[in-house]
Design goal:
Blueprint (H helix, E strand, L loop, with lengths): L4 E6 L3 H6 L3 H17 L4 E6 L27 E4 L10 H7 L4 E7 L1 H14 L3 E10 L8 H12 L9 E4 L7
Length: about 180
């Protein structure tokens, strides 16, 4: 893994953990991954979804990052208002200031923010490791969450360009 790697934790917020497929098991896996990243001195950046009302209204209890993975003082929390964590945010500036070229991505929701951010990262010249057991979603009217997760793990693994690629890996293989 590149020495210019960062762990990007996307939308691991109270509401989503309470409603996502295996949400509490997911946050436990992310917590272990986060501990190993910090122990390995891998920079950690948080993305926090925001809306003007509803579950993700800024300041509401359901908008908060899950209490088991609270950011440390030096770990940036980047607020976003779209599925793309790069769109109208400071994410790219934060990554460039740390000379990051490889993102390890975990969080929620698989078919929205995880997918969009992973694909956009490739377009912007980053390599991506999608942590295949550290992202989740909710059931849709068409597919169960478990199917959505499996589909995206298969679909995104190997997606990329001639110079950048998404690779799906288990959290057990990372930062060890």
């Amino acid at each position: 893994m590149s020495t210019n790697t960062a762990l990007l934790i996307i939308d691991v917020q109270a509401f989503l953990i309470d409603h996502a497929f295996q949400g509490h098991a997911l946050v436990e896996r992310i917590q272990k991954l986060l501990t190993r990243a910090r122990d390995s001195q891998i920079p950690v950046l948080y993305i926090q979804h925001c809306e003007s009302e509803g579950e993700f209204e800024i300041g509401t209890p359901t908008w908060q990052i899950h209490q088991t993975i609270t950011p440390k003082e030096h770990e940036p929390v980047i607020r976003k208002f779209a599925c793309d964590s790069f769109l109208d945010t400071t994410l790219r500036d934060e990554l460039e200031s740390r000379e990051i070229n490889h993102l390890v991505i975990a969080g929620l929701q698989t078919e929205y923010c995880i997918d969009t951010t992973s694909r956009r990262a490739i377009s912007l010249g980053y390599d991506v490791t999608l942590v295949n057991n550290c992202h989740s979603t909710l059931d849709s009217p068409v597919l169960k969450a478990e199917q959505i997760i499996a589909h995206h793990n298969a679909l995104l693994n190997g997606f990329g360009t001639e110079s950048n690629l998404i690779v799906a890996k288990s959290s057990d293989t990372l930062f060890v």
